[in-house]
Amino acid sequence: MTASARAASIRDGVDVLATQAGEFASGLAGPPWLTKLRRDGAASFVKAGFPSLHDEDWRYTNLLPLARTVFGLAPRDVTIAERTQAVELEARLGTLGLSSPGPRLVFVNGRLVRRTAHTLPPEILFENLATALRLAPERVEKALVAAPSAHPFVALNDAFLDTGALVRVGKGLAAPDPLVVVHLSTSASGTPAPLMSHLRNLVVLEENASATVVEVFLGSDELSFTNAVTQAVLGESARLTHVKVQLEGRQTFHVGSLFLSHARGARSVSHVYSFGAQAARNEIATTLSGEGSGTELYGLFAAASGQSVDCHTLIDHVAPHADSLELYKGILDGAGRGAFDGKVIVREGAVKTDARQTNRNLVLSNEALVDSKPQLEIHNNDVRCSHGSTTGRIDSDALFYLRSRGLSEGAARALLTYAFGSEVVSKVAAPDLRALLEDRLHAWLPAARTVTA
Amino acid sequence: MSQQNLLEIRNLHASIEEDGTEILRGIDLVIRPGEVHAVMGPNGSGKSTLAHVLSGRPGYAVTAGTVSFLGKDLLAMKPEERAREGVFLAFQYPVEIPGVSNTYFLRTAVNAVRRHRGQPELDAMDFLELLDAKAKLVEMEEALLNRSVNEGFSGGEKKRNEVLQMALLDPRLAILDETDSGLDIDALRIAAGGVNALRDGKRGMLVITHYQRLLNYIVPDFVHVLSDGRIVKSGGKGLALELEAKGYGWIETDAAAAAR
């Protein structure tokens, strides 16, 4: 095991990151707005620091272990060792069913390591954000500076802004295959500190454009820190399906944010599957600012002993006649911890809003813990809104029913746990992706068997 | 001669685990292969508790007595072991299990039992063939096989699904817990038809019912009357008709008199 340096205090940890950000930015050229964005990001992060458990929005996420660890950036060039590890990790996707030779960008510790040869029309852009920042930065400026820098991890992401996936689909076009972005975290041999990566993905769909974007996070079992921000800007009547699959190793810290904005009539569907990492926080903020726009958020998170997974969603109904549907499910086993914190805001002008939010959690052991905090904030009367949250154990009648038909207790528990999660997985339209997720859910299930009632 | 008894219940006492209330107060019952026994009795007499205790449902404590199934100690077995050994309980209230397809569930159950019996597991194709044949027995529509287990099924469909499971699992002893409850006459006829098709001279059955009506369709060899946790009267199928005509009152009075 690599000995990792400890920051003397959280304050020290913040200062170390600020210094790293300064060094990082000074090594990069770019237009003044970009330099400023990075510098402002670092400054905002220094000002805000790591959120603590006293912050209402962070009360379920213990960042102390993250804040006290000193992470390093991988050197600019990908090493042979990383390349080898990347190939091995990516091969896992093949066995998971995601082997289709469609468009794919593979990043390892924050640097592009591979892209599949694919033929997309010139109006569909799918490439490294860093390339766009060098060749045509003015084309991404507007979107990038619009990210909410008040968020400490977005600010930190701004400070290190360079690589990630850039998707742009021109007016009226549909990306024919899912655009797959793979983020790998590995411990590159030779680096003294555990690695961090700050990825920025930008998805721009013009009027009537449509695309499916899949982000997969995979990693080896060493300590690492992933801070990913994805911004998706949907033009009028655009359609986006965004799938995030978080399967990182059991020592990884993962903070990921997805921002969705909708013009008139735009629709998005988001899927979050979070099974990995030591501590994972999945955030989504979706703004329905276009009339008649809509969003569907589906999430499935699972945590066993030594893991915590938090899902935070914000659905902001700004425009009238917009609809939102949210279904999040959590499965907690062993001493695993999880949280669902979902807020729906319906603004004064957002009449005829239709918003439905559901969170259900399944607790498989006495030590597991899950917090659920659904919130509705409604500022006008002409709406249809509902929300509900339940947390329960495996139904004892169903368990006995299955056992009375010959299934062992472990098999019965696994089947019922699978059934609980499969409701969410079934919402994924792409068959190979659905198969991958069903497989991951299955792979997770043996944990359900270790528990005795 | 001496054909082995299928089920042998001796002086069975059982209580509700939570509060210690004694429900079964000394049951004695022997079922030989091929026999169909009906257990009748008023509400609260312990009929369903008997079914639950025999199938191993958690929540009951056996405080005295023995139950042997084909010579083995049934009470020492887990519910799934009883099922694999050949005890089947048709539930009074079959459980809805959203998210588990009925067909998948049935195949998993069949293969769990086949593994135990040393038979090869059935693959999806072979199983569908078997399922198709058995589904006809209870007039089960294909749509119900593709839905989640019992989810949104009518009362009759749920009971038919129980009989279908029984046909698939091919038990040595079938316990039918109030299979007639909540069924109209057509649904009852279909369910009973399925049960009768499974009477083969070897399989034993324990039919638990409040009303004599079911026994017009599933005609028993023996009828036992349960009252206050004990079998207070046993007889042939005629006893059921007598109960239908006179109600349970006279039995309870007789039993009380005998106890005095």
Tally the beta strands of chain B: 12
Mean pLDDT of chain A: 91
How would you characterize the largest beta sheet of chain B? 6 strands, mixed
Strands in their spatial order, largest beta sheet of chain B: 6-9-10-3-11-12
| Structural class by helix and strand composition of chain B | alpha/beta
Radius of gyration of chain B, CA atoms, in whole angstroms: 18 Å
Please tell me the CATH architecture of chain B by its name: 3-Layer(aba) Sandwich
Report the helical percentage of chain A.
Answer: 25-40%
β-strand percent of chain B reads 25-35%
CATH C-level category of chain B? Alpha Beta
In round numbers, the mean pLDDT of chain B is: 92
CATH superfamily of chain B: P-loop containing nucleotide triphosphate hydrolases
- Strand coverage percent of chain A: 35-45%
Q: Which fold name is given in CATH as the topology of chain B? A: Rossmann fold
- Indicate the overall shape of chain B: globular
End-to-end C-alpha gap of chain B:
40 Å
**How many alpha or pi helices of chain B?**
10
- Number of DSSP strand runs of chain A: 20
Which range best describes the helical content of chain B: under 10%, 10-25%, 25-40%, 40-55%, 55-70% or over 70%?
A: 25-40%
Shape of chain A: globular
Oligomeric state, counting identical vs distinct chains: heterodimer
